[in-house]
Amino acid sequence: MPTLGSLPADKPELRLTFVWDGPKYTQATEIAGVVTMTPEQLLEDGVPGNLSDGSLVLITGAVPFRLRGRITTVLETLLQHMSRKGSPGLIVSAVPGARQPFPQPVVDQAKRLDLPLLITTAPAGMWEGVHEEIQQFRLRLAERRASHLSSLVQELPAQLADSRAMQRIADWLARVLDVQVLVSEPERVLAASPATAAEQLAQAIIQQSVDAGLPDAPSRPHTQLIPLAPTSAVDTVLAVTRRIPFDEADLRLLRHAAKLLGLVDQAHREYRAASDASRAARSAAFELLLDGEVAKARRVMTSMVPGLLEPDTARVFVVETEQAYRDAAVRHCNAAIGHQALVVPDSRRARRILIVHPISSEEDNGAAVSAELTHLVGTFGTHSSLGGSGVYSMTLLADALHEAITAQSFAALQPDPVALSVHGSDLVSLLPQAEAQCWARHLLSPLMRDGVQWESMRETLPAALAYPYTVAARRLHLHRNTVMRRAARAAELLHMNFGRIGDRITVALALEMVTQRETANPAAVTGTEPPSLASLLVAPQVQAWAQALVRPAQADRRDLLTTARAWLAFDTHVEPASRALGLSEVTVRSHLRALENHMQRDLATLSGVRDLHVALYVVTGNPGLLTDHPDGGLRVVA
What we know:
This protein is an alpha+beta fold. It is built from 24 helices and 17 strands. Strand 11 and strand 12 form a beta hairpin. Helix 20 packs across helix 24. It starts with 16 loop residues before the first strand and ends with a strand.
């Protein structure tokens, strides 16, 4: 755009001299056009009514300023009209070296109105066509601005949360204005074009932070720093720099781009906040499911995926992949099966993803979801594996998760990294089923003689053995005294002490065999001689399972298995175990955490302790670790 300092730039003879320039005006003031008139026209016609906004007024020819009366009055009126129209200034023609061409009252009026007075020494003929040139220039500039704005709008992403939107806009700015672009927060770079822009603009960003407390601190001449959210506490900044200064059109375009980038940045922040809230809610729902709080988990998920957790049965899948890729893997899983399953990253293991797939009786064991997960894991890389459980009741998802983790640990060691078991890779499934049923029924026969009593026991004992009575009562929606009374009655009938970890493991194992793994014809095994539990554990498949479970812990330089034996001997109490071992409690707890990592078992659960307990007996072959109870139970001895 032509300015008072360049009118136009290719005609230096039209350079203007400032008689007086008000504080609001500089040589950079833009000009929208030039209205030319002679003194005679001004005297005869008065102030022109068609003066367009932003236009200069040029009076050509000799001005009879000695006639100070009428001409001075007209000029004062003209200055007032020009001020209202935003005119950049008043020009008169004068010969080189001429005295002040403006009467003093006119100069005083111009100062009051902050309107520059200027002199041109160029002949009147030189000004012919200048107005048309300015209009043509403004037309070309308007077309360029329209093209730029249209192109900028084309860069608007279909979704504001598009992760690549900022970089595309930065690349566009760099290309259109021939600049280096950086979009950054105080802690990180959001987009840069070219990639080296961050290095070039670092000094400008630092200088801005230094000058932030100074009033009206200016940017460097060829660097522009534009906050994307100037009215909020967000410190995201668009920084651009180039070798030549920015004109007003460039600055307008930068401000438009900054607004668009600000919208994208705001969308990114809101999307991240919503995503974090959704992830937290899903994780909370998963934890509630593991705790048996199905109704609460359903309420949590109702607003996100209505009806997802309504079925009464589900399968659990475990995906393990590289830690750096886990977040991306979670997104892929959610995109593929998020409407059918609950997908959460495991808060306890940085490489693991946990998936609950609720299924109804009409579905074929969730075959479609398992097939989709199998395909996805194949795309995640060579260090990824998948394990799946069978179909479990929603109230028993902790057991389903345990089975899925076991299946995944086997899959990770196999050429095919997928193991989708239906009760096929956990300890209970590996036991000889008919003999194990016979042993379990024989052990529990004192509880099963009375049908009413058995119903209450099979409902209460699994939770009462696995959790403190207060927790078990909450999960079962019973009074704590009811749970205590039933557990005490069961211990009395079985001649066991549920304060001992071995007795709890034994009865829980037997209950699982009878209540979850019943054979098609249980009466067929009741007449056989009941085997001992120790005889069940010599099965080859159980031996292989125990070896695989304990092998990682045996490779540890610390004697983790000795710590585990002492901990089990003292019924999972750390304090007496540490005294017996001569170790600090901190060391014992550290050993137990290492065992959890090596075995991929949660030793805060009864099933996790059971697997450690049985695997130690099978692997060490130490008959003193486990001894048969007269009624078929187990004892742990030091």
